[in-house]
Amino acid sequence: MAPPLVSVQMKKNKKSSLVLTLSAAGLLISAGSVAYWLLAQRQTSSSDLLVGANIIPGDALFAVSLTTDPQQWQKLRQFGTKETQTELDKNLVELRDRFLTNNGYDFQKDIAPWVGDDVTIAILAPATGNKPAPKPVTTNENAASDQQSMVMVLPVKNPEIAKSILAQPKILKQGKWSDVYDGLRLRTYQGIAIKQSQGQAGQNFSAALLDGRFLVITDSPKATERAIDAYKNKTSLATTGGFAENFPKIANYQPFAQFYVNVPTAAKIAAVSPNRPLPAQVLAQLQNNQGLAGTITLESEGIRLKGVSWLNPNSQRVLAVENKAGNMQSRIPAETLMMLTGSNLQRLWKDYVLTSQGNPLSPIAPEQIRGSIKSLTDLDLEKDLLSWMKGEFSLSVIPATPKEGSPNDFRAGLLFMVQTTDAYSGQSLRKSAEASISQLDEVMKNQYQFQVQPGKVAGQPVVNWVSPYGTLTATHGWLDGDVAFLIVGAPIADKIVPKPNYTLAGTLPFQQTVPTEPNPTNGQFFLDVERTVKNFPLPTLIPNQQTLLDATRTIGMTSAVSDNRSNRYDIFIELKKVTNATALPSPEKSNSVR
């Protein structure tokens, strides 16, 4: 199972980008000079929620919090290969130079003494409602009022040091700082003073200091007011349905990053996108989901992600709490390259249909899968197959062992196993399974002219499907009385019959990579990236895929249904390490990447 994929697309005509907003952050630090005398009232914020969650408007599309600890960023640079380190350095230097160095700021000297442990960046959906727009101050001030906007929250950790730093703001290279006026008096909003830069069109940014605790930077005055409203009126992300209840489930000490995705709001934005509009029925289905959040931490051997997703509190849909997986990894051999397990295949399919039917973003349409099974086997997917697949299941890739004098057309076998006992009621469904498997044997024999031959492996009966050309194509049989298995590709039945002495569950890579929490679990995933890439070609799915694969050793995931409204996920990625990792190039040597 995988968390849902949400894409937030900015309009092409939007003049201020994420990088531009980050660059403005360095400039807007001096905004605090207007109200530095408020800094003495600093209070401690909750460590269980996203930094700035009480400021970011509740309808935010996306929010990400990043650590300001240089040691964590240096630790990140130690992972991977020289190629990934070069790519990471390029991006870090570009961000540093654009929003700090090029504007006369040095992080350790000017920012670190007063900023908190984390800063948060959020993307807001276009403003809606009947509230009148604020009076424009410049001709371009509200030019992007109907577009997505950006909010950055910088916590203030040390008011006294901040006072001395912010009292002497840097001189802007372009544009100038000005107080925002309404008539003849200094403009405030709900008692909060607002500062704004005046530069080129589309490059005006606003800043406000909230209770001396948070410096809020936005790319429009309207976004600043929305943040102040959220903070004052308690309509922030912290009060959004399910956020305060679920985010603490993934809280961790000194995280590298945390993030949040507003699923229904993002779906609405995607629905009106001219590139890939979502059908109305898909939008309605996504309204059942509310949020997806995660915490990323850096460990000695890699990166860990703790995630949680939850349903809309008003949704009629509920989740079945069935965490019955955890045994299949003890049935497969230690040399297994990939393993995916789950609690109940029938329920997984129903959930997939519910969220994917008619969804253009789904990898394969449910109706296409049904149709393919029917045309190839003449069996009904739900009635003839999934009706008895209500127990734990697994899909694995196991490499073949070359045998002298026995040519093999396959280098690995694909193993599918499913427990034919209802995970919820305990009822045995083996008879139904045997009837469907017999039908499948007849189809392979009569429709595809395969030889269906009884056989034995280690004294246990199996059935082999042999193609008309004489190559062993598939084998099926039973394990422990109620676990049906099917092998396609290389003949690897002797690796699981009898049960192997040295299993995947007992290997060090599995134990070090696949998280032990949450427990009990409804599914796990393991991939030995290093061995898989070395022996098998993989399709290209993402940009720079090979570079990322070369930096990765193993990937593990454990998931569980936390309650009838939320799911939990733990993912660990074991990475290679760069020997003698160098320090990030200094500003003087980085040539100010632009």
Outline the structure in words.
It is a single chain. By secondary structure, the chain is an alpha+beta fold. The protein contains 16 helices and 23 strands. The chain has a 21-stranded antiparallel β-sheet that branches. The protein has a two-stranded antiparallel sheet with strand order 5-6. Strand 17 and strand 18 form a beta hairpin. It is elongated and about 85 Å long. Residues 1-45, 130-146 and 180-186 have low confidence and may be disordered.
Produce the secondary structure layout.
Elements: H1 18-28, E1 60-67, H2 70-76, H3 82-99, H4 107-111, E2 118-124, E3 149-155, H5 159-166, E4 176-179, E5 181-182, E6 185-186, E7 188-189, E8 192-198, E9 206-210, E10 214-218, H6 221-233, H7 243-246, E11 257-262, H8 263-271, H9 280-286, E12 289-298, E13 302-311, E14 338-342, H10 345-356, H11 366-377, H12 381-385, E15 393-399, E16 412-419, H13 430-446, E17 451-457, E18 460-466, E19 472-479, E20 483-489, H14 508-513, E21 523-528, H15 529-535, H16 545-550, E22 552-563, E23 566-575
Antiparallel strand pairs: 1-2, 1-11, 2-3, 3-10, 4-8, 5-6, 7-8, 8-9, 9-10, 11-12, 12-13, 13-23, 14-15, 14-21, 15-16, 16-20, 17-18, 18-19, 19-20, 21-22, 22-23
- What proportion of the residues form beta strands (DSSP E)? 25-35%
Instruction: Tally the beta strands.
Output: 23
Question: SS-based structural class?
Answer: alpha+beta
Silhouette: elongated
Rg calculated over all Cα atoms: 28 Å
Average pLDDT? 79
Q: How far is the N terminus from the C terminus?
A: 40 Å
Largest sheet, in brief, is: 21 strands, antiparallel
Low-pLDDT stretches are: 1-45, 130-146, 180-186
Query: In percent, how helical is the residue content?
Result: 10-25%
Oligomer: single chain
Number of H- or I-type helical stretches:
16
